[in-house]
Amino acid sequence: MRIYRAKDEQDLARKAANIMSAQIIMKPDCVLGLATGASPVGLYNQLVEWYRKGDLDFSCVRTVNLDEYKGMAPDSPQSYHMFMWEHLFSRVNIRPERVFLPDGLAPDSNTECLRYNAVITGLGGIDMQLLGIGVNGHIGFNEPGEEFAKEVHCVKLTESTKQANQKYFPDGRMPDYAYTMGIKSIMQAKRILLIAKGEKKAKALAASLQGPITPEIPASILQLHNDLTVVADDDALSLMR
Ligand code: GLP
Questions:
Q1: For the chain: N or C, fewer Cβ within 10 A?
Q2: Neighbours of 214 (CB within 10 A)
Q3: What is the pLDDT of residue 160?
Q4: Is 174 exposed, middle or buried (CB count within 10 Å of its CB: 0-12, 13-18, 19+)?
């Protein structure tokens, strides 16, 4: 495990973007596993800036996102589809047919999980998976208690996660369920890049990286990954021994 300490938000974005850019440069047709939330926004902005300067080319890159709310239309403002198009896809030369997310409107959950698993496998697996971390130690939407052995599945969101994401749902109507890559799907990625900022993440980060490996802290399994890079700010690292 490598841990890089970022001195501020911009430094965190640049460090993480450097790592992801290196992946794209070394393997132009790489498969990137992408994440949503506040944490990766700066990283995506930095990638866009380097693309505009001519330093990055996304024309062969393929992407698979970690998760999507069940029941959410792709063109709904709170969907993770929309988030990805706004923050990254529409701003770089990625091909629309090469970006993949779970389909929130799929009529049957089991079929959708199988389909999305097959998408990931069909791409040959993930070269680099980007992760944020939830205040309860979740990754993707793998909530505490989730089996480590799962691939793509549909989860009931915990109250803690609903509260943390409530800010994105001003009408208060947050979905109860989401599709997520499972821990097994995440752990199968060749490289993992975890980013965390702010003191709200300090407890989850310390427990995940230095505590016992337990399904109660889903991110703790990352200790067993052989190519994990963490980029975090001082606040997020403040409870690390
Ligand atoms: C959501 C997402 C996670 C993300 C987490 C933290 O629950 N499903 O993938 O890591 O939020 O988000 P933020 O970066 O906004 O704190």
A1: C
A2: 15
A3: 85
A4: middle
Set 65, 127, 136, 165: catalytic member: 136
Catalytic residue among 65, 67, 103, 151: 67
63 phi and psi angles, rounded to 5 deg: -135, 145
Beta partners for residue 68, in sequence order: 179
Lowest mean pLDDT among 33-47, 164-178, 186-200: 164-178
Q: What would the mean pLDDT of 15-27 be, rounded to a whole number?
A: 98
pLDDT band, residue 111 (cuts 50/70/90): very high
Q: Strands 2-6, 228-233: parallel, antiparallel or unpaired by DSSP?
A: parallel
In 27-116, the DSSP E strands lie at 31-34, 62-65, 67-69, 99-100
Digit-coded pLDDT (tens) for 77-108: 999 999 999 999 999 999 999 999 999 999 99
Least confidently predicted of 107-116, 158-167, 199-208: 158-167
Q: What residue has token string 């929309």? A: 82
CA 180/CA 165 separation, integer angstroms: 15
Task: Please confirm, yes or no, whether 49 is among the known catalytic residues.
Answer: no
Counting ligand 1 atoms within 8 A of each CB, the residue from 70, 129, 138 with the most, and so the one to mutate, is 138
CA 41 to chain centre: 11
Note the pLDDT of residue 28: 98
- Show the ligand 1 pocket: residues with CB < 6 angstroms: 35-39, 66-67, 132-134, 140-141, 161, 165
pTM of the predicted model, to two decimals?
Answer: 0.96
> Cβ distance 128 to 23 under 8 Å?
yes
Contact 239, 201 (CB under 8 A): no
